[in-house]
Specification:
binds iron/sulfur cluster, Fumarate Reductase Iron-sulfur Protein, Chain B, domain 2, mainly alpha, 55% helix, 110 residues
């Protein structure tokens, strides 16, 4: 039996986020973290939330705001010693969220 696309996407996300050591090297370079001074809007914070969402099925409004406010600039990827495809993880998480009917209604004040 052919596997469902969301299942394949979840596997990709799981393998990428499991490489995160939570070292925080990515945080200082992230523009949304710089402006907000809030870890929820940092690459590490996003990875952490995605991990909870995809692996544990945990969800709250914070996930939506954090994931949709990433600028997809890839600055964090240049700093990540674990070579995590952070932007790809975020894009695929957005895909799953939209597929599940979760869309950002209004941008939060970052
Ligand atoms: S730099 Fe990479 S490994 Fe370190 S916290 Fe950020 S995403 Fe995780
Ligand atoms: S790609 Fe997203 S998480 Fe990474 S530095 Fe840019 S805004 Fe921050």
């Amino acid at each position: 039996m052919e596997r469902e696309e969301p299942e394949i996407i979840k596997e990709f996300i799981e393998s990428e986020v499991s490489k995160c050591s939570f070292c925080g090297f990515c945080e200082y370079i992230c523009p949304t973290h710089h402006v907000s001074n809030d870890r929820v809007y940092s690459p590490r914070g996003r990875i952490n939330l995605i991990k909870s969402l995809v692996l544990e099925g945990w969800f709250n409004g914070m996930v939506e705001k954090s994931i949709y406010t990433c600028l997809l600039c890839r600055a964090c990827e240049y700093e990540c010693p674990s070579n995590i495809s952070i932007v790809e993880v975020i894009l695929k998480t957005r895909y799953l969220l939209v597929g599940g009917g979760v869309r950002l209604k209004s941008l939060p004040p970052v």
